Amino acid sequence: MVIPISAHIINAFVHQGKGGNPAAVIEHNGLLTQAHMQAIALYLGLSETAFVCDIKAKQYRVRFFTPTQEVDFCGHATLAVGHYLVSSGRVSSGNYTQLTKAGNFAVSIVKNAEVMMKQRSAKFAQTYTADTIATLFENTGEGSFVTSGVIQVVDTGLPDLLVPIKSGMLSHLKANEVAMAVFCDTHSLASIHVFELNTHDSPYYANTRNFSPHWGIPEECATGSASGALIAYLNRYEQLLAHQHVVFLQGLEMGRPSLIKAHLSKTNDSLCPVIGGTAQHITTTLLNVEQQSAKVVE
């Protein structure tokens, strides 16, 4: 038996109709096993493929897969899912709860406009030295590219390592993918998220880059989960005001500039990152998946 699949390819965090990070969104009715989902994600080859099911009045369930493994949460694929659901008429504009393996996330969806998601209150974890981080990049001069700021793991859905970079250095970084993959696996990290702060006259509060080679993603052009960790980090260490709305620019070095909007929302006694942006449907790919072998066939 062959299962027909429609994979909707959607760019998340687009900037002036360009750039953005592509994710695949697939709606299924429970016929797909984990093996099917992994085979599809590998076949499509995007950084993440999101599988949506159990769509109800005010909530829906999503699982996320990279080409190599399932992950608990993905920010840009969350935007892609929201865009798909409202643009296809599966849901109306409004507020929803997205159920994931990382927990439940509040998502606000507006047709033909923004999708905003509230992440968990930040957990600040282990710190690292500049010399340690220097081993993850090539030709970096023993950490001289890192500022004197704190290099720390921050988790708002996934554990991302935030690395502050000196102004003008971001575009010159080249990841040592082998060393970085081993480091991330050893320390149970989702990504290495490096950033440089901009001057007050820039429309972007920070420029960022994100690396997850251990998940089959050498570099990503827009990362919602790490952007949530970043705004929490900036609130703690860079005096970013809790009510301040900022914009991050990512993907410039990849030729895919992507715009990520961020602010903090007070929930009870906690500050929770709210991340969002716009998305754009690119194409729909039709696939056939063999039920028994979990193989994608033409």
UniProtKB/TrEMBL annotation:
One of its GO terms (molecular function) is isomerase activity. The keyword Mitochondrion does not apply. It is an enzyme of class 5 (isomerase). The keyword Isomerase applies. InterPro entries: Phenazine_PhzF-like (IPR003719). Gene3D superfamilies: Diaminopimelate Epimerase, Chain A, domain 1. Its EC number is 5.1.-.-. One of its GO terms (cellular component) is cytoplasm. Keywords: Isomerase. The active site is at E48. Transmembrane segments: none annotated. PANTHER family: PHENAZINE BIOSYNTHESIS PROTEIN. NCBIfam families: PhzF_family (TIGR00654). This is Isomerase YddE. It comes from Pseudoalteromonas holothuriae. The gene is yddE_2.
